[in-house]
Design goal:
InterPro entries: RutC-like_sf (IPR035959), YjgF/YER057c/UK114 (IPR006175). By secondary structure, the protein is of the alpha+beta class. It has two helices and seven strands, in the order E-E-E-E-H-E-H-E-E.
């Protein structure tokens, strides 16, 4: 995959690319949005810990499809407040650490999720 960052537009604000080219012939996985809830139904309090759970779940989904975090082409994330952005971004950076990938990314602030305790939701598109 190729990161697309035209020099004619402002560089990205953080560790992401403005676009990602997925070459022909690649298999693609699209995950559903993952919330910060563990298999035992526990939900961490902090946005960082919720985001870590989201990325742990995504890693398992990718593994099921014979892919890894380094195969991520795009990340879409949703947080319920600006105060949760730093925790999410820290977990995202840990998810991508060592992969050599800087995928395209979208981060939105939303009014809420299905349960009040959720602060973060993340979905990815991956290709291999």
């Amino acid at each position: 995959m190729k990161a697309l960052n035209p020099t004619t537009i402002r560089p990205p604000f953080a560790a992401y690319a403005h676009g990602t080219e997925i070459p022909a012939g690649k298999r693609v996985i699209v995950t559903s949005g993952q919330l910060g809830i563990r298999a035992d139904d526990s939900i961490p309090e902090s946005s960082y810990d919720q985001a870590r759970v989201c990325f742990e779940n995504i890693t398992e989904i990718l593994r099921e499809g014979d892919m890894r975090p380094g195969d991520t082409a795009h990340i879409s994330a949703y947080v319920t407040s600006r105060e949760h952005m730093a925790g999410y971004m820290r977990a995202r950076d840990e998810f991508l650490a060592g992969t050599g990938r800087v995928p395209s990314s979208t981060l939105l602030i939303v009014s809420g999720f299905t349960r009040e305790e959720f602060k973060v939701e993340v979905e990815v598109i991956a290709a291999k």
